[in-house]
Amino acid sequence: MISQNGCVEYFEKPLELPNGETVLYKIEKINRPEGVEADVFENLLKEVEGEINWAILEKQNGGSLYPQYPHFYFDETLKDDENFRVMVSLFQMTPVEGKNIMLYPGRKTKKNKIHFLQVKHGDAFVIECHRGDNHGVIVVDGGPTGCGYVLQNKFQQTGIPDLMILTHYDDDHIGGILQWINTCRDNGTIPAKSIWANCAGFVEVAEDKTTSAKQGAKLSVLLNEMANTGEMTWRDDICEGLDIDLPFATIEVFSPTNEVRMMAIQKQEEEGKQLLKASQRNIQDLKTPLEELAKDIPDEPNLERDNELANAASIAFILRCEDLSILMLGDSYPQNVEKYLREVKGYSEDKPLEVDYVKVSHHGSRNNTSNSLLDIIKCNNYLISTNGGKNRSNHPDRTAIAHILCHPNRNKEEKVHLSFNHKMDLIVTNGAPFLNEGEKEKWNFEVHEKITEL
Which of 53, 91, 135, 406 to pair with 453, CA 20 to 30 A apart? Predict the structure, then answer.
């Protein structure tokens, strides 16, 4: 198919060169603009020769004219075309006799480039390397989550990277790469011909999307899956003293030490095992009747842990106004709230606190709701704010739902309403399944999804 962009006519179908390389396009002709004399056109091109070079080709068609292997084919009939001489001069090309005239750009066009990508607060570099006639593309880091599209756009110009190097697994370096790798997996392509990433090569993590690992462990799962196809290689032994001689560049590694590398990998393996254990717990909980799970007694918070201290410090309160009362529990722990309601306010199983709504603590986490707290609260409307959670936190937890539905003081003749602000499909996909068929009828409750106003 012949397409035209400005004065350039090009053939969109990829071509194979006599040496076996693939050319992404074939330029058929450079047309002189209508009304412009040949000598004027030639002088105009010469004036911008120093600036135009490859950049104009990249600009003319959104990057598609920028080749992985910079070769052009011209039809034999263009030999005597008055614009052909201008084209050869402009791009410093040398004609090569053959079936057609094949042009190789001069040495000036073989330019090393550092692409310094804009990836918010993170790092991402794409480096085009030349050594002799060899050309290669190296990617170093990919910015934070949400920047995968930046890499994808750049690779549409440079082609699939020859080498992708992940320096370490902080989000501002790994997030975009994880998105790019997931895109490639969905498309059945490879993210790079070779990847350097020091993450646990044999970490065992549940394959289901509902149990995402922390980023280093998650990357190892994806890379294991792709490397097993044989289409790309993955190294996780990158440490000081490693010297690599590639056709297009050499790389000498200064850091980390092998001891530090192994410590990082061990940490990822431990995280992966914890996530696998959490996944197995979700599966087991789904098999366990709600009435059995409701017997679980939440652990006391460990205030030496930063996240548990933060939750314990969460503000919990009752809001009352005309025709509305709501117990807002934040991420608080049930022990603190129950103690205050019993000892300070005098509520009990025989004299419960009555409210219209309860905002369930910590998105429905298993350790933030208890039978003994719910037994002194009279309410049939529970609000659970979550899209399913992330990483090892799957919300809501089936055990928290069990407490709401099966605590001893509940009046099972009255229907309980569980309201979520996201669709159930999303919650289950990001988190884990938490209800079985027939339980709504058995325990007299109803689920309301995607509720944004009450």
Answer: 406
**Cβ count within 10 A of residue 432:** 26
Each residue's pLDDT tens digit, 104-144: 443 334 468 888 898 888 889 999 888 887 889 999 999 88
What is the pTM (predicted TM-score) of this model?
0.48
> pLDDT tens for residues 397-437?
999 999 999 999 999 999 999 999 888 887 887 777 899 99
3-class DSSP state for residue 170?
coil
First CA to last CA across the chain, in angstroms? 57
Q: Rounded to whole angstroms, how far apart are CA atoms 315 and 295? A: 27
Q: How far apart are CA 361 and CA 359, in angstroms?
A: 6
Q: Could you say which DSSP state residue 118 is in?
A: -
Sheet holding 101-105, edge to edge: 72-74, 101-105, 93-96
Q: Which two tokens stand for residue 328?
A: 């807002």
If you search the block for the tokens 């911008």, which residue do you land on?
48
Q: Please identify which residue in the block is written with the tokens 């999804």.
A: 449
d(CA 329, CA 385): 12
List alpha helices for 202-257, DSSP H: 215-227
- Which amino acid does the sequence have at 294? A
Q: How many angstroms separate the CA atoms of 119 and 145, rounded?
A: 9
Could you give the CA distance from residue 189 to residue 209 in angstroms, rounded to a whole number? Answer: 20
Look up residue 210 and give its DSSP letter: G
User: Tokens for 239?
Assistant: 């440490």
- What is the DSSP pairing of strand 393-394 with strand 389-390? antiparallel
List the structure tokens of 191: 């993210």
* Per-residue tokens: 255: 């850091």
Going by DSSP bridges, is the β-strand pair 377-378/353-354 parallel, antiparallel, or unpaired?
parallel
Q: Rounding to the nearest 10 degrees, give the CA dihedral for residues 430, 432, 433, 434.
A: -120
| Count, residues in the chain | 454
Map tokens 């309410």 to a residue: 379
Q: Which pair of structure tokens corresponds to residue 447?
A: 């689920």
Token look-up 């999307």 returns 209
